[in-house]
């Protein structure tokens, strides 16, 4: 039977705690149904400390009146800083009993009020959502999934980011005119960069609309500040031969990397970061079975891809791995180990220093042209500007025009997404790995290079062309 007592502050402060793991209740003689629930003492370092019991006020009543009596907690009580004083607890108990008599459940009403307050708070927060706060969410929920995560965030609100001047602004107050003006200002010094930043901002604002942070995209329909033409620079066979021959003087790793970029026309950063354990180089008795698994995190489109290795690509990779100049991983100087990367200058990171290597390659090509011109008594021809990316365009052009390789297969070899979305047919093909067609195409391309560029087996050209035309 529950003990009854007329509550006083002094009496509450002197209540003995319950036995460890237990609790008891005392009913108030002043307000019917009001009780104090007394728990065990506070625990510190595994021991019960002092006589300070855990006390809370509860109301025993019928919720609703026709049901069995149940207890609802009114609030806690502590000696120094009570959540509820004795006076407040009695007033709250009387109020709840009055509500119950009217058919209301006060605890349910309290829950509803709290939920409504939470909704109002959220609405208030959303009503004043800063650009920086929205970018932080976009970063955590979207950008973190992308390989270009840091680059994209920097383009948005880095030191030279398009939206950096708007960081503290309520995102809903941004106007199309303001965004357009910043784009125009950026384009004065860096028009192509401004194009990219506008594209990143457009994607960000579209996400904000999807997340209901914005009603409409303030970057929508803003024209690019600079026209961009698709790359149409591709190399002739003679130019490919010049590049191939000049790479010999570069040595490891750029000799192998440039040659692989011709034979295996993926993006520079994809070829440069090849890990040894991602390669299955097969056996010498069947050099056509090599496979390189390009993991999702190393690709521009964040999708993994199995890449068939032609015998020529396989030979270049094996030569690079076994090159005496390839450094070991000396992170633990007492126990050096093989580097995880095929192309590296440190042993612990993928190769870098592309600009210097490219400049040196250009000089070697120019020197070779000068010698050839002097030999024949004519003026040398200047090397036209080119980039490593042009090697991809060269493959695509020759593969489709001369070798008869299907455009969708060539596109998949390049690991494209954007170009593959130009038609419905190409979108369908791009979802397929097309492994066997890619393998045949890359073997045909390697044979073409061996015959026309490297100078091996020139008599195979006619046979090759007959096969690809069939």
From TrEMBL:
Q: Which residues form the Core-binding (CB) domain?
A: 129-209
InterPro entries named in the record:
CB, DNA_brk_join_enz, Integrase-like_cat_sf, Integrase_catalytic, Integrase_DNA-bd_sf, Integrase_DNA_bind_dom, Integrase_recombinase_N, Phage_Integrase
Q: Which domain of life is it from?
A: Bacteria
Recite the UniProt keywords alphabetically.
DNA integration, DNA recombination, DNA-binding
| Occurrences of domain Tyr recombinase (ranges) | 230-443
Q: Name one Pfam family in it.
A: Arm-DNA-bind_3
PANTHER family, per database record: PROPHAGE INTEGRASE, PROPHAGE INTEGRASE INTS-RELATED
The record's similarity note reads:
Belongs to the 'phage' integrase family.
Q: What is this protein called?
A: Integrase family protein
| Annotated organism of origin | Sphingomonas colocasiae
Q: Tell me the organism's taxonomic lineage.
A: Bacteria, Pseudomonadati, Pseudomonadota, Alphaproteobacteria, Sphingomonadales
